[in-house]
Amino acid sequence: MAAMATSGAGVSCAARGRCAGASRCAGRPSGTDAARPTLPRRGNAVRATRMARMGMGIGMGIRGRHASCALASTENGEDVEVVQEEAPPEPKHYYALVANAKFLLSDEEHFAELIRERVRYLRENEKEINFWIIPEPSFVLDAPGKFSNVSRPCAALVSTDEVWANFMKLRLDKVLLVDLGVHTDPADILKSQGDVPDYPKPSGWTAPYPQYTPGWWRKFATPEHIASANAKKMALAMASLGKKGIWAIWAMAMSM
Fold first, then answer.
1. Rounded distance between C-alpha atoms, residue 183 and residue 143, angstroms
2. Would you state the pLDDT for residue 72?
3. Which residues contact residue 131 at a Cβ distance below 8 angstroms, ignoring those fewer than 6 apart?
4. Taking the model in full, what pTM does it have?
């Protein structure tokens, strides 16, 4: 013990008995190059840490709360992982403007320009896009009696901004303004049960700006709808090519 006391910083991990791999680092001096002790990790915090590393984000025993990892230093200068629980998303109020899809997405010449102005305003003020365009929304199709005066196929503009929703109602006029209530997870109200065609450009265009390309609104749909629509387009394209066309594309890809 006296020898250990006089050696000071030269005491090895094996002598201290703090390293699980003492047999491998015996005699190594302590300090920046010394092997750090293995700290015991048990319980839900450990499992949450491992799951957060894998991107799962939710720890066992703390379901419903998001977990993330951070490094903290102890008094001895040792880095340990600490599980931090993030607050769940705050509930938001959602509003929708519902109308016939052809009228809203093609015939109404002001709609596209109003959306463009809104995007510019949000970006200039460094705000997130807080609206979506939903074709054939589930909340309409699941309540046909409530939306009996909306012809099919239909589309909806959903937003969390009540003032802007009322403004769009006044500008578009022939749309139905609906209060969708408060939701923490908007997956249900943003769900689509189908798609609408890319209507051709309307004739007799009177607006001072050029007509928008058919399908311009798709960039404002949900990622799930965009992925589903792209998959359907790919399937139709592959079906139109036939077996010979598919084999030709495959052979071309293999030769590159």
1. 18
2. 55
3. 118, 157, 158, 159, 160, 161, 164, 220
4. 0.58
